[in-house]
Amino acid sequence: MDRRTFLSGATVAAASVATACGQGTQDSSDSAPAAPAVNRNRTRQLRMVTTWPANFPGLGTAADNVARFVNEMSGGSLNIRVYAAGEIVGAFEAFDAVSTGTADMYHAAEYYWQGKSPGFNFFTAVPMGMTAQEIMAWCEFGGGQELWDELAGEFGVKAFQAGNSGHQMGGWFKREINTLEDFRGLRMRIPGLGGSVLRELGGAAVALSGGEIYPALQNGTIDATEWVGPWNDLAFGFYREAPYYYGPGFHEPGSCLGLGINRGVWDSLDSDHQAIIQAACRAANNQSLAEFQHQNAIALDVLRNDHGVQLRAFSDDIWRRVGAISEQVVADVANADPLSRRIYESYAESRRRSREWGNVSEFPYAQKRELVLGG
C-alpha cells in the first residue's frame, strides 16, 4: 500500500471513530491516529488564529488538538502554531485575517461570520436546529460540506468541522425568567440567530467574545449570558454574578466549531498534507464531542453541589413562542440570497429526516431510560 492510499484510508478511519463507541476510550493526551512517514527534510509552518482565550477548556483545546494531530500525523513536516484571540488579531477578526492571508487558518464558530453571509449560521448552530450528531451527519453525508465549501469559497476559505460542544445550556440570568414578559428589556450576550430570536422577544442581544463576558456581567453591561455548558461556564465563574442557570437552550442544540484555511494555502499543500488536515479535523471533532459530554456531567455536579447553583427551565409557553419565532428567523435567512436558500433547504430537509429517525430511536429511549432509572 502506498502512502497516498494509506492516508486516504486514515481519513475514513478517523471519521468512523465517532460511530465506534464502546470499543475504547481516548484521553485528551492520546496521540493522533498513526500516519505514514513523510519527507521530514521539509517543514511547512502555518499559523492558526482562534476566537478563544489561550488554553481554554474544550474550545481552545480543540484548536490545539487539531494542530497537535497534524504535527504528529505529518511526522513534523507540517507544523501549526496556534494563537489565542488577541495575540495576532481579535476574536472577531479571525475570518478576515485568513481570508486576506494575514493568517493561514482559524478555529472558530462559523456564526461569528454572519455579517459576511447569514448562511454561515447553519455551520455552527441555529435556533431549534440540529443536534451534534445531526449536523455531523448533514455535513459528512447530507450535502452540507459541499455547500459550506461553496459559501466559504466565496471568501477564499476552505472549512471543515473541527469540534462540537454538544447541546448548550440556555444561559445565566441575574433574575428569574418566568414569562415572556421577562425577556423585555433583557440585555443578553447571545450571538448568531439566537440573538435575532431574543430581539423578537423584546430583549437586546449583545455580541461579546468569551473573554469579555464576565466583566460585562460584573459591571452590569449585560443582565444575562449564554456561553456553552457546565464545563466552560464553570471555568468562567458565571455563577458568581448570575445565580439562575437555565437549560436546555433553544439556540444551540449542537454547536459545530470550524477550521477555516486560506484557499491559496490549502491549494498549495500536497495531497498528503491535505488528507492529514482533514483527518486531524475529524479526529478533533470526535474527541471534542466526547470530552464535552464527559466534562459537562462532572462540572454540573460541581455547580450544583459545591456552588449551590439553581437550575431552572423555561416554561412551555416560552418554548412555544420561542419555537415559532425561531422557525421564522431561520427561514428568513433563505431570503438573503440564492446560496443561503439552498443551504437552508438542504439543512431543513436533513433535520426533517433526523427528526423522524430520532422520534423512533433516541428520544423515546431517553424517556424510557429516565422512567426506569429515574424512578
Automatic annotation (TrEMBL):
Note the Pfam families from the entry. DctP (PF03480)
Keyword list (alphabetical) reads:
Signal
Record has Signal as a keyword = yes
Query: Is Cytoplasm one of the keywords?
Result: no
Spell out the PANTHER family in the cross-references.
EXTRACYTOPLASMIC SOLUTE RECEPTOR PROTEIN (PTHR33376:SF5), PTHR33376
Give the protein's recorded name.
Answer: TRAP transporter substrate-binding protein
Task: Tell me which species this is from.
Answer: Hyphobacterium marinum
